[in-house]
Specification:
mainly alpha, binds zinc ion
Length: 123
């Protein structure tokens, strides 16, 4: 993907994360006491590093919904910085531009995403 195009998606992602953070702050007041922006950002490393099953389950539960989306957005921003943005994390092929325009945080191509969703539903 061209640098110029990445910058365009970066703007979209930054706007998206701003929007999600606002949503999380609103939810946080009532339901997720600890769900501030910092916690949401830290959840991904927490979920991955936690060896304790309970910790991991808690992290996974917290990471649901908007926090999960925020995580996807922040990972996409990382991939822009690394220059790997726009490639499927599963098969490494370019993700269709149309898909990225609708869903800039997409990390898998349509084929891999639908396979992934099927696997998730089988759990
Ligand atoms: Zn793929």
């Amino acid at each position: 993907m061209l640098k110029r195009e990445m910058q365009k998606f970066k703007k979209l992602l930054l706007a998206e994360s701003e929007h999600l953070l606002q949503g999380i702050r609103t939810i946080g007041k009532d339901t997720l006491e600890a769900a501030n922006a910092e916690v949401a950002m830290d959840l991904s490393s927490f979920a991955e590093s936690g060896t304790d099953t309970n910790d991991r389950e808690t992290a996974m539960r917290l990471a649901s919904g908007e926090s999960q989306m925020l995580r996807d957005v922040s990972e996409a921003l990382d991939r822009i910085d690394e220059g790997t943005y726009g490639k499927c994390i599963t098969c490494n092929k370019e993700i269709a531009k149309k898909r990225l325009e609708v869903f800039p945080a997409a990390k898998r191509c349509i084929e891999c995403e639908s396979r992934h969703e099927k696997e998730m539903n089988h759990r």
